[in-house]
Amino acid sequence: MRTIAITQRVAVAGGHGERRDCLDQAWARFLAACDLLPLALPNVSEVALALCSRADVVGLLLTGGNDLAALGGDAPERDATENAALDFASAHGMPVLGVCRGMQLIQHRAGIRLHRVEGHVARHQIAAINGEPTAINSFHCFGTTETRAPLEVWAVADDGVVKAIRDPGKPVTGIMWHPERMTPFAASDIALFRRLFGSA
Which among 136, 96, 144 has a CA at the least distance from the CA of 117? Predict the structure, then answer.
């Protein structure tokens, strides 16, 4: 199995204010279905970069959870870690896949303005993925209806909100749905991960 670096959300433990990194266990199951192993990155940028440089990782997965600090989020250490990891991936030509917040970070770095959207939290909807109507899940309150070069759109919700982007010149992709939350896992999502990150 090939190993990819995967980012984690920040959760604050009640009572004593401990800032914890955490990851849905569903990610391990989904990535195993893709013949991939996750290397969880802590939200301490220098440690995350040391792991990326010393481990034999073949790509970077930016997961969901926590709003970006620019959008009012309260996990600036995660923003710093993910921006550093994106810079590392770019410098080493590594493929990147951003899921939900991860896609928003890719868009934000490209100068795309994100704003609040209605009707995209905890629901299923139909999106045109490469022109084909497809049922997806949706768990986000920020999005956009536009893009700009070098990013291009390849999935759009029925209300025009962008659901997937890619950079045709680099191995960078973003999706706004959560493949790890699908039951069963969608064959198209598994194929996407294998295509981007390769398989054993």
Answer: 144
Q: Are strands 2-6 and 57-62 parallel, antiparallel or unpaired?
A: parallel
Assess whether pLDDT exceeds 90 at residue 76: yes
| Residue located via tokens 């940028």 | 45
- The closest alpha carbon to 106, from 60, 56, 37, belongs to 60
Cα–Cα distance measured from residue 1 to residue 153, given in angstroms and rounded to the nearest whole number: 30
Quote the number of domains for the chain: 1
Q: What is the DSSP string of 47-88?
A: HHHHHHHHS-EEEEEE---S--GGGT-S-HHHHHHHHHHHHH
Indicate the pLDDT class of residue 200, thresholds 50, 70 and 90.
low
Q: Which residues pair with 137 in a beta bridge?
A: 124
Distance in angstroms (rounded) separating the CA atoms of residues 5 and 55: 9
pLDDT digits (tens, 9 = 90+) for 91-119: 999 999 999 999 999 999 999 999 999 88
The token duo for 131 is 């022109």
User: What CATH number has the domain bearing residue 38?
Assistant: 3.40.50.880
* Close Cβ partners of 62 (under 8 Å, ≥ 6 residues apart): 7, 82, 85, 86, 96, 97, 98, 99, 101, 102, 103, 105, 106
Asked whether the CA dihedral 41, 42, 48, 54 is positive or negative, the reply is: negative
